Here is the input.
Amino acid sequence: MTPSSVTLVEVGPRDGLQNEAVPVSAAQKIELVHRLQAAGCREIEVTSFVSPKWVPQMADNAEVMAGIVRQPGVRYSVLTPNMKGLEAALASRPDEIVVFGAASEAFSQRNINCSIAESIERFRPVVAAAHAAGVKVRSALSCAVGCPYQGEVSADEVERVVLLFQDIGVDHCGIADTIGVGTPGRVVAAMERALKHFPAAEVSGHFHDTYGQALANIHACLALGVHVFDTSIAGLGGCPYAKGATGNVATEDVVFMLHGMGITTGIDLDALVDAGAYISGVLGRAPVSRAGKALLARRRQAVEVAA
Ligand code: HMG
Ligand code: MG
Here is the structure.
């Protein structure tokens, strides 16, 4: 079942930067997107069209979308929580939008200020309008194994929301471990519920790495035939409404593992490490990515040996 190639959706510019205390300018975000696409990333989640009062870090969404020089073959996606967000997003010509709901009522309330049922009714016209505009719709299902407010989340709760997403016609179902508490058995159980209702090509994993389980979870999902994963450059990320959760699994670490397994990604790891070093420099810290740090150290050693 293990796929020979994997698609990585780079969520660093959105998930990575939405929770950053250090201000990052629109020009720096645009530069990051350019470096990611130059490294071979073909799916990039650029920004979100959410309320700037809720997430001020994404208030420059239209400026960032207008500033990127688009590369043929790259898909640019944005988050849209409601019709207001979709209307603003469409003016920026995304290839794909993301509606985001949760398997836990408490997280739905904290993150998007409504119940699960209300969120689905909000998303219904968003999905229809996006499709009418020829734009693909991805869904993200947060708290698929655990919730910062509710605690454990069952696979039954996940499947209930998978079915609600299917009912409103989303094209893709992303299973998200928002707080990174999932271990392979529990993540596989959640993922299997998505695979019951969506084809493998339209199911993805989005694993925050708070407890260091994300690579193990991706490895377990590969065995199910899942071959699309969200990852974040330099391990950036978090959700303002999931306190204590750290970043997404680092793209560099996932690429290192996949290439080591003989699985192609189309990504140039060296150029990716440069992109990670760039954004980490902007944020004034070292990349969280273990592979990124190791490859940067190896480069420094090679320079010292040559000198
Ligand atoms: P609300 O306050 O309930 O919305 O927020 P409202 O409809 O009552 O509107 C209130 C005000 O917000 C109004 O402005 C609206 O115009 C404005 P006012 O009249 O007060 O001046 N407004 C907007 N402005 C800009 N863009 C919009 C928009 N909508 C309303 N789209 C809302 C509801 C969903 C908007 C709010 O809760 C929100 O923006 N939440 C943001 C949540 C968020 O971005 N979370 C992080 C992303 S999700 C995530 O990270 C998880 C993921 O990575 C997967 C995982 O890891 O689990 C995807
Ligand atoms: Mg996330």
User: Anything to note?
Assistant: The CA atoms of residues 103 and 158 lie 5 Å apart. The domain at 7-306 is CATH 3.20.20.70 (TIM Barrel). The mean pLDDT is 96. The first helix runs from residue 12 to 16.
